[in-house]
Amino acid sequence: MSSETGFDPALYARFPTRAPRPDEEKEELAHIWCAPKGWDYLTAVNNSYIGLYYLGTAFLFFLLAGILALLMRVQLAAPLMEVLPQAVYNQVFTMHGTVMMFLFAVPAVEAAGVLLLPQMLAARDLPFPRLSAYAFWAYAVGGLCFFASIFVGLAPDGGWFMYPPLTSKAYSPGINTDFWLLGIGFIEISAIAGAIEIIVGVLRTRAPGMSLDRMPIFAWAMLVFAAMIVIAFPSVILATLLLEIERAFGWPFFDAGRGGDPLLWQHLFWFFGHPEVYIIFLPAAGMVSMIVATVARTELVGYRLIVLALLATGFISFGVWAHHMFATGLPPMTTGFFSAASMAVSIPAGIQVFAWIATLAVGKPRYSAPGLFVIGSILIFVTGGLTGVMVAMVPFDWQAHDSYFIVAHLHYVLIGGMVFPLFAAFYYWIPSISRRPLSDRLGRWVFGLMFAGMNIAFLPMHLSGLQGMPRRVSTYLPGQGLALPNLVSTVGAFLLAAGVLLFLVDLVRNFRFAPGGGTAGNVHDAGTLEWLPTELYSVRSIPVVASREPLWDDPALAARVEAGRYFLPRSATGLRETIVTSPLRAEPQYLQILPGPSPWPIAAAIFTAGFFLALTVQAYGFGLASGLFAVIAVLRWLWESDRRVAAERVDIGAGIEVPTYVTGSASHGWWAMVILLIVMGMIFVMGLFSLAFLWSNQPSYWAPPPAFRGAVPILLLDLAAAALAIGGRRLLLRGAAWPVVAFVLSTAALGGALWLDRGQWAAAGFAAEASGQGAAVFALLALQGAAVATGALMAGYCAARALRGLVTRPANTSIDLTMLFLAYAAIQGLVGALFTRAVGA
Amino acid sequence: MAREEVMIAAVGTLLLGACHPAEIAPHDAGAAAIARGRDAARRLGCGACHAMPDSAWPKGRVGPALDGFGDRAMIAGQLPNDPVRLAAFVRDAPALVPGTAMPAIPMRDEDARDIAAWLQSLHEQ
Amino acid sequence: MRAWAIMLSGLLIWAAHFFILYGIGEFIGDGFASRLAIAALTGVCLAICALLAAAVMRMPPRDFFGKWRMQLAFAGLGIGALAILWQGLPALLA
Amino acid sequence: MSNRFLLASTSAGWPPPVLDPGGPYAEPVTLLAWALLIGGAVVLAIVVAALGTALFGSKRLKAKLGGERAIWLGGFLFPAVVLTGLLIWGLSLTSSLSPQPGTDAMRVRIIGEMWWWRVHYLDARGQEALRDANELHIPVGRPVLLELESADVIHSFWIPRLAGKMDMIPGRTNKLLIEADRPGVYKGQCAEYCGGPHALMGFVVVAHSAKDFERWRAARRPADGGGGPGLDLFLASGCAACHTIRGTAANGLAGPDLTHVGSRQTLGAGILPNNPGTMAGWIADSQAIKPGNRMPAYHQFSGRELRALAAYLRGLE
Predict the structure, then answer these.
(1) CB contacts < 8 Å between B and D, how many?
(2) Nearest to C82 among D80, D91, D94 (CB)
(3) Does B63 touch chain D (CB under 8 A)?
(4) CA neighbours within 13 Å on the CB side: how many for D100?
(5) For the complex shown, is ipTM > 0.90?
């Protein structure tokens, strides 16, 4: 055995401990992690609550978007129906797609992660509980406001992909489109927050000994999921920002008449949009891998191949975005790259499918409801995958693209790849959070109705597509043979809905929320840690993990965990806490103090919602105030964090001592900041790409940029800012005031560099409204402006903490993170100044 | 019953035919003719001006809705609503009602007859 | 970082290869020179995959987890190489 | 004349247009489509068989399936081989269907509008020779190079029996080759969501034999000026602000060119048969037919006026 951190793995042999643990420890844990009462439910941050709220809200959106789908199917049941007028239909299909993709699918899998991961990893909670709470409330409040737009006829009607120029001010003058940009704004914030939470949670809060090769597949899937969000969402963040700026201020990013390009939107949107499909699919595939093993009563065959498949999907899915653009006139060689990558991405999917089949072959499958849903999901997903390979062929896609063939394909992929696994997961995991399991008998009916309904609804759509029925049509003319397949589809849709309705009946009859104690327990006889007996504090003691299915390999584990014979059988500090472990081998590193319930995350979320809503209805004063309050609420919640506790080192069991406060690159805060900076960096890189893309596609609108000469003082200032930031952190040894002074100077240097940069572009005659080039350059400068402003805010926060004596020496996390941010901002400014001058020079 | 109707129609047709020698000779108004008439009306796009029962689009608003046409006593408020005149009217309205907005529409004899049969089969629900 | 770089090497090479290819197609064009460059780059990337695979095979597995990581890297290089090969085909055929 | 009633006459649901190619730019795709559909069904059958074996098979068969070797074979090797073949097919087909410079094709520029199509026939030098709307006439057996553009939002041009679709994007000119083997009428529809009545944005391609095409071409002369009361009404009612009728004072550019509107197969961009009745109905209240289209309703005409106008326009052949 070798070590990653210097921790001696031989120490694991001290567990399980022998000495009996006093009962008071358990009482203290229960007291520290007590359940909310009354209004406390709003301030709860524990993953058991936030995860369930999250999942419930996501499922509500599934039902709402499903009702919209039924309305559409009624309208399309026969040719030339008039159930929904054209204008309403256009809103309904836009909302169906948007809500299903953004407000149901991503939040639902993210919610499953929040709910299940800590238990699966035997952590007490996720590392940033308040961030989870904020992400949830922002999503819930914003999502519901967004959905409400359909009741007042102000719902977006440009399709979920929102292609400009249809969505530009000229062709969509109403605020409908702004509602979309608002709704997506929330989900971007909440998805990124969730991703940070999940990456740090999976890599740093696993039970000791749970090396990467012993991690539950679901955790692997969530890790890849979160990493993909970090890379993919910045693209749509930038795209929505640019479109909103174009609509509000007339900067022509997508206006071909002024040197913009509508195709830029498509690149930015699909660079997010296609990985999005895998972002939805991978966690569900992770669920299937977990459930298959339990249902087959054997360990997963090909574990490492599945891990590889998850990773490979994560990578290759970033090379397929333009297969949504095969008909836009891309040159054949370019479409060929995307065609090849689209084929390559089916290989990992095939590996997973055959691994599931192999697992079923080895084991003795039980045909319980989760088992049926898993088998059904494999069949449906494979069908969708095969049509996926078909449309990866460019010439076939030219015919199938934007027709009902694609509608069929994508629903097979998403329903087989995500909805069925999610229902399998409901039937599988609900016993771990509810006093009663769901009814297996009803579950079979739910499965039967949904499986039959799904196929009856979507199989005929392959045909109607080949018959020439385009997507997003509110009606169709008779005499094309479309009436019959459409009628069949409508019948199928209602069967599918009947299945979902029956599930709701089952839920109402049997679901009794019991976070922690008193759950139905391990009814499926599963082997992973989430089936250990838990309370609100998760497990009584955190076990040493020696295999992938610890409960199968060590039947006595549950009892020993409950008896407190492993790590952290008590609260070492009297606070909420969890063990932070190393990323590869999960060796214990330090004890993280977790924040408890707080009203500030929900307050911040409500003000964030107010900010976006006010912008949508153009109440700028109210919006500004809301934004300000949101920032204050976030700072207020952060204020209580980053504190040392009295005991610098504590015993986390069997005499193993770890520190309670760690700074630098090993700390969870540092990791979170680095991930946030990757997000910012991706937004910036996509901005740079936008500039280069416009230059390459609209050369006639290009003007020579300012000379490189002018960039020299900008570079010097940015370098100085970076040096001050890094030096400031070192100076903390000398006193808390030094880094604050250095940070303020660093921010000033950043601001100066930005001021110079902006001035040179303005002096060279560029204006943001004048051309695509001007718009892109000033958008990059605005991004840098946002970074500088945030840096200034962080410097001010450090100053306030220093004044209050909260900046402890010799090292302090707040100082670390501010240093990282300022150094990043300096690099961003420097790269931007050089790149903008290089494009078209 | 259907047979009787056919007989009555045939007799009526003969009588009417005597009065209007230039008109199209009507034929049986059976279910097949009604169905053919409905299809012909759709094919010709009558919906561009008239809302037609059991066809949701187009629902033209220029001319009167055709729902319950069989119950109406008059065509365009001026002509007795009988199969022969109706068949003539749908093909060449201005010839019978000079001020109408409905143009003459080229169609075959059978189409005109079928459409008339279909129109007269429309009753208020 | 090194551990991750080894585990993900095949996929990282695929990513570099893909984005360079896309950049050539988007910003330079599909002329003969571009196609030649793509063919050459594809060859180089495949060679790197082969060399890395050989190196990974020779690495001494220190324990079960170390061996597992090497297997993951090796299989990843295989999938990466197939994808890279496909990625290069359009320069020859389309 | 019979194809004037195309909307109802093509009642066939089978074979679907994508599988019923009408020319050399659709045929190889149909072959590919059949190969993919059948191949897909075979692979699905294999997976179902594997799944069935895993669940209900004999011990011996299950043992064969239950290991990493089966995963490598079924999940990696098999798709790798099949997909390599498909990729090569797809790539070479893509390149052979893409317009190459220097083809001896008839050239037509088609410009997508919300929610209709401008059609400009070009001569060999690329100069505009003839304008029309919503309908394209082509000779059989000769490739036609379409230059696809957009005047407002993104549309997509799709005649399934003649070729795959190609987007019309503001600021770009996309090229698409089509060719019909046999005379006939080929229908199509906008395939990219373009707001409002996107569902009602149809298009018609009419393929003629070479001789008929020349005859059709020769008959495209400006209106002879014998408009009478219909033309007077047309000019007096403001129709000319949006529509052009060559040979008259009407020269509006916002709407379709009506010089030959009487000879078109359809009205309202591929959605209504073209006869005096539908013409009158469209003029008087097109909003009831195609909600949201850019032509307002004209309720002010008397019956006689409406008929005169419709008769005049119908006469523009």
Answers:
(1) 88
(2) D80
(3) yes
(4) 8
(5) yes
